[in-house]
Amino acid sequence: MTELASSRFALPFLALAQAQKETTHNEALALIDMLLHPVCEGIADDPSMLMPQPGQCWCVGAQASGVWSGHANHLAGWTAGGWRFAAPVESMRLFDRSSGGSLVYRGGAWLAADHIALPSGGSVIDVEARDSLAALVTVLERAGIVIATIS
Questions:
Q1: In DSSP terms, which residues pair with 96 in a beta bridge?
Q2: Could you give the 3-state DSSP secondary structure of residue 23?
Q3: 123: Cβ–Cβ under 8 A, 6 or more apart, which residues?
Q4: Distances (CA, A) of 61 to 35, 57, 72
């Protein structure tokens, strides 16, 4: 990657003095790079505790501090030029690397994928039904919709 391309998708930035619009255009490309296929490292409140690499993003927690103050629930992305912020929109979905599931923005908050326990126990064990449920949970887990737990 060069300084003329964005960190995540290598979107081209305008070169200095090209069309006199480089600052605005590059800022837009940095945001597009964050939001095109959003992935966050997790939810955090204090950016001073992080060691971000260009292209990494976090969901800003409700108790945002430092340079994140005033950006609660925003998506914060680290770039060569510092932090960039994007406000979430209702039903925005992103992948959370820390949990391995999806986060969805609803009602002013990021909601994590539900944990679903695989079937176990009971007085009558139906192996075919359990296999079918386990296969369904696996598909939902791979899609980032739920997180399976074994009880």
A1: 40, 101
A2: helix
A3: none
A4: 18, 13, 6
